[in-house]
Amino acid sequence: MRAAWFEAIGKASEVLQVGELDAPSPGAGEVLVRLHTSGINPSDVKKRAGSFPDLLGDGFVIPNSDGAGVIEAVGEGVDAARTGERVWIYQAQYGRRFGTAAQYLAIDSRRAPTLPDKTGFDVGACLGIPVMTAHRCVFADGDVRGLTVLVTGGAGRVGYYAVQWAGRNGANVIATASNPDDAATCKSAGASQVVNHRDNNLAEAVLDANDGKLIDRVIDVDFGANLLTSVEVLRIGGAIATYASAQDPEPRLPFFRMMYKDLTVRFVIVYAMPESTKAQAVDDIAAALTDGWMQHRIAHTIPLDDIVRGNEIIEQGAVRGAVILAID
Predict the structure, then answer these.
(1) Distance (Å, rounded) from C-alpha 223 to C-alpha 27?
(2) Does residue 116 sit in the same domain as residue 153?
(3) What is the pLDDT of residues 107-146, one digit of tens each?
(4) Can you give the residue range of the structural domain that contains 208?
């Protein structure tokens, strides 16, 4: 099969290679998927660059956790009726070396939910890390109906879906964005108000957008950079759900201010979510795809052979929307 892989940690241009590998066979409880697309996410790029200890183990790694395709065979214990089913993939390259940047993937059947006929394979490759992370951030601390939720970086990969999940489920969503195009994107996704996160007094701008009232939740794209603002704008008993801290990876906590507000801080990574939470996200995604309300953005679709360029696009950090590899 045609596949991309790396045998050492390092720069994309130095370690990623594309060629022929043996196709896998499905084991017990697994399905064999002929992949049409593979999603490149920041966590995939960071793992290849060395953020995940002992990633390589005793061999090469086929990168990327998200993708979509068609089941061609099933292993023992899997209903044979799944053969021919269109599916999307999540958590392919976690705790194992074999991800979605390949023509074939053998994976636990539960990691390959059904993809509706009307949903493209490109969209299917967006559903794992971005959509499931956003779902966890929005719902981990309970129902959001009637609450005010601040989504920082509302035009980003996860933020864009968080705005949609929260707004669709009855929250008043305030998003942050730094330019008119991103502000329009946040509004189209369901934000009632958008503030500029480069404002010299972001906390004041957020409270003004909420008629001077403190807010209930923060879904945060950069925990360290935004922490003081989050603490200032949250009500007593409020919560922060965060999935990144790029500017300050080791932030200092204003402990007493956070304690006196009885704040909850939740760190979210899709791989470590409880299985029950993953299952609920899969069910809610299925309903969203069936109803057709969820919006998606594909920034780049490029051939598997150009995986280096795809990694470099992600690393540059300016892209809005998903970067998808077309396997065939």
Answers:
(1) 40
(2) no
(3) 999 999 999 999 999 999 999 999 999 999 999 999 999 9
(4) 130-271
